[in-house]
Design brief:
180 residues; 2 helices; mainly beta; eight-stranded antiparallel β-barrel
Length: 180
């Protein structure tokens, strides 16, 4: 029984913390990620470990969180630009996005529920720790659902909930760092 607990501990610890690979001059490969969040809209972009969860697979296999989330309207209607940091136990990397709001639908009482589909491209522009010198990029898509509180006068954003699932796929190069 002790061996089974030890094995489970090793597997869970490896999945949560990521495992560092050998150091190399340059390491390149495919990189996929998912961002998930289900909670108060007010904390969705607050960043830190209580914000959005990031799970990566490919060159970097780890779990962390999204921090320093920023988003502004793009140069054309229905577009947005922004960025954030993907933070892991062994370092972080910064992602810039250029996106499109593909679809916005309302539903529910007083149309207080929003379904927002997004897609676009991302670029990995820098990194720290094990991700120093990180570059790369790819595409992303996903869905955000905002649940506001129906009232007699319409909708109230007070206490609104966000359910968000985004996914990206592309490539990454780590120069002078190690794959995690």
């Amino acid at each position: 029984m002790k061996r089974m607990r030890l094995l489970v501990g090793i597997v869970v610890g490896s999945a949560v913390l990521g495992l560092a690979g050998p150091a190399s001059a340059a390491t390149s490969g495919t990189q996929d990620w998912r961002i998930t969040f289900d909670g108060p809209l007010s904390t969705a972009n607050a960043g830190g470990p209580t914000g959005r969860t990031v799970i990566t697979h490919g060159l970097v296999n780890s779990m962390g969180y999204e921090d320093n989330v920023s988003q502004q309207p793009g140069s054309s209607p229905g577009t947005f630009v922004g960025g954030s940091d993907f933070v892991f136990p062994v370092g972080s990397y910064t992602v810039h996005v250029d996106g499109v709001i593909d679809n916005i639908r309302t539903f529910g009482p007083n149309s207080c529920y929003l379904l927002i589909d997004v897609s676009g491209t991302y670029d990995v522009v820098s990194g720290t720790g094990a991700f120093a010198g990180a570059t790369g990029g790819g595409t992303f898509s996903g869905r955000n659902i905002v649940l506001q509180t129906p009232t007699d006068d319409g909708c109230s954003p007070d206490g609104a909930t966000l359910v968000s699932h985004l996914r990206g796929s592309g490539s990454m190069t780590l120069t002078g760092a190690q794959a995690a």
